[in-house]
Design a protein that fits this description.
single chain; mainly alpha; Hyaluronidase domain-like; 5 helices; 2 strands
Length: about 120
């Protein structure tokens, strides 16, 4: 299955993610996830968890944010540096940086969200 990040539910979800509408991104991606097979299914689940984590952050739920980012990172670790048109290596690195900040209890105010860089 080829993941197309420029149109359809994946594209709309990516636009929502970049506009920091994380709940909406999660909803769009979940529609694709439901009909997916491995290895894309687990990959999309990791991305959905990233979006859900930052929705939790927007709601002030730091514990939920940390938990979802941990689970997303574990799911994404099994994938190569580039998968499904996404720069997974950069995403994993940015998730790790967010987890360090959250675990240190540092302020997240103004910190950029992980970027979902895609090719295509």
């Amino acid at each position: 299955m080829r993941l197309n990040w420029t149109e359809g539910e994946l594209g709309e979800g990516l636009r929502c993610y970049r506009a920091q509408k994380f709940f909406a991104a999660h909803e769009h991606w979940e529609l694709v996830w439901l009909g997916s097979k491995e290895p894309e299914k687990t990959f999309l689940q990791g991305l959905i968890q990233v979006a859900a984590a930052f929705h939790h952050l927007q709601q002030g739920n730091l514990r939920g944010t940390r938990s979802l980012l941990h689970r997303a990172r574990l799911r994404l670790e099994r994938y190569p540096d580039h998968f499904g048109g996404i720069d997974v290596s950069s995403l994993r690195k940015e998730i790790g940086e967010w987890l360090q900040v959250l675990e240190a209890g540092s302020s997240t105010h103004g910190r950029p969200y992980p970027d979902l860089r895609h090719s295509g």
